[in-house]
């Protein structure tokens, strides 16, 4: 991670109020695909990691039983809570949680994990660890939208800030999901530096 968790939290809290109005076409396309692929059932619990102001958590709350939105930035979550209240979503819970420790109750059921434009803040070994934590929730599906490289990124057109972001290749992420007992059932190329990866569990957790 190029910045500490505390530095990322502070950075996002500072821009939380303007965050929703600052996003690119590719970001919106990516978020929309994550929402479509998440496709929760009415009795599903969705865990959204790096939930920010609720770009994924709020739309999926319309179909799911409950959404656990976890983030490290209180400012981003405050925006999310305000929007949830405005939209009448009382089944979304924003609370502090990190990728590598989402702060769930030990017996918390999770059916679908989502994450959009957030995992790239971690280094590759930390991303692998985070994907392990997602798998350990027992979820049947993980939908990850993020900055990730399909090919060598064009240095003239970086889709990320090298000072704070640390994107992986799509291959690294796919390998991490398969290592955790998931089959990657879709890889959507939104941009040569933006991917949506859908992973479905094929190997059961050990009893
Ligand atoms: C670019 S925003 C994306 C927010 C939201 N998912 C979206 O699609 O708009 C990245 C979010 O990841 C959060 N974040 C950064 N590092 C994190 C970590 N280690 N654990 C959990 N969240 C993290 C930030 O606080 C921020 O809200």
From TrEMBL:
Residue ranges of the region described as Disordered: 1-23
UniProt domain Methyltransferase: residue ranges: 46-134
InterPro entries (alphabetical): Methyltransf_25, SAM-dependent_MTases_sf
Gene Ontology molecular function: methyltransferase activity
This protein's UniProt keywords: Methyltransferase, Transferase
Family matches, as SUPFAM superfamilies: S-adenosyl-L-methionine-dependent methyltransferases
UniProt entry tagged with the keyword Aminoacyl-tRNA synthetase: no
GO biological process, one term: methylation
Protein name: Methyltransferase type 11
Source species of the chain: Halorubrum distributum JCM 9100
